[in-house]
Amino acid sequence: MTYTGSTPPFGRALCAMVTPFTASGGLDLDGARRLAARLVAEGCDGLVLSGTTGESPTTTDAEKAALIAAVREAVGPGPVIVAGVGTPDTRHTLQLTAAAHEAGADGVLVVTPYYSRPPQDAVEAHFREIADASALPVMLYDIPGRTGTRIEPETLLRLAGHPRIVAVKDCSYDFLAAQKLIAATELAYYAGCDEHDLALYAVGAAGYVSTVANVIPRQLRAVLDAFDAGDTATAARLQRAAVPLVEAMMCAGLPGAVTAKALLDRLDLPAGPVRAPLRAASPRAVDGLLTAYAHATGPTA
To answer: Where is the active site (predicted)?
Structure first.
């Protein structure tokens, strides 16, 4: 897969899918198949597996590979599967990248090494080593609020020259830098924070990688469709309609994996529990999520 700058390398509307677990905490592959098929049917071009929302820190290497294979079986060859392979260990990341390729992934999502807080030359070397070793296209994941380390704009400018580094999932909250990099490179930018979906798309981003799409995939896809059709007023209205749910799921003190699974459970969709140290949302939090969901899916949405 080669990104030419004219078509998004992974599609436009991507869901950062939860990893369904059974009631006892095991991997629920049947649930993953059913959820993946629903998300694609509801408008997702692709699925990002084993990312932050997919609880990657608490799933094993074998579970990650099994999840890719099960989802590929469920959705077929068309929809894109991007596998989260990022770890704080370059050797481990290389192993997960090779396993993702073998299991059927179309690309890999590589987060900045966390906890050790490497300097920028080490960050760059880490990403280059992953991209050099793999035949899969790479989406860099810039989320300094979790990793403690930014992928600085100058580093991204240099990495943009690598033929297999084609995209960025942007959770930097640096809208100015994102616009400058979109203008200066052929990197496909994907909004990683749902409040930025339309804003980044309007200035040239490729689309989004969305946690909220686990529960409202069709509504978020409609934002991009309206914008592409030239109906910017409708796109803005649809984006605003999603804002209370975005806030409830992503900005109210609970991780997106917790809030997404709480809603999916109440909607009788595959999810199951989160793994410790995460804990289930309280009944009060779930009530608030359901109210926001009703607003996002109501007649004016």
So the answer is: 141 (proton donor/acceptor), 169 (schiff-base intermediate with substrate)
Largest CA distance in the chain: 51
Q: Using the 8-state DSSP alphabet, how is residue 86 labeled?
A: -
**Looking at this protein, which amino acid is placed at residue 48?**
V
Annotated binding site for pyruvate: 53, 209
Per the listing, tokens 């890719």 go with 68
**Taking the model in full, what pTM does it have?**
0.96
Active-site annotation holder among 3, 64, 115, 169: 169
Helix axes 283-297, 256-266, angle to 10 degrees: 70
Q: Is 3 a catalytic residue?
A: no
Q: Which two tokens stand for residue 50?
A: 């084993």
First to last CA, the chain: 35
Angle CA(80)–CA(212)–CA(249) in degrees, nearest 5?
A: 150
* DSSP characters over 20-54: -B-TTS-B-HHHHHHHHHHHHHTT-SEEEESSTTT
- Catalytic-role residue among 3, 141, 189, 293: 141
| Residue type at 270 in one-letter notation | P
For residue range 71-109, list pLDDT tens digits in order.
999 999 999 999 999 999 999 999 999 999 999 999 999
Instruction: Indicate if 169 belongs to the active site.
Output: yes
Nearest to 271 by CA among 189, 211, 199, 229: 211
